[in-house]
Amino acid sequence: MVRLPLTPAEVARGERLGALLRRARGERSMLEIALDARVSPETLRKIESGRVATPAFPTIAAIADVLGLSLDAVWAEISLSDSDVGPANADHYAGERLTA
User: Furthest-apart CA pair in the chain: how many Å?
Assistant: First the structure.
């Protein structure tokens, strides 16, 4: 099976997802969150770093549940269009969206 390269929009969305999860995790350890979500710490690390830009839905649902995030909030955060948020402003804008 050949995997198609990710589009720039998919990569940006993955970066926004990673930033959101890092902020939501706060001071809690990556290991604690991963184990509670029943995913490997390596998987969580790759998602948070943006290396896995399109993780499986059940994985995101499990992590979001452990972090106390609604899937609606996660989707609203990561689905911003590239014209709304440039890569340099993604973390700043995402934080504003969650607190608004």
Answer: 42
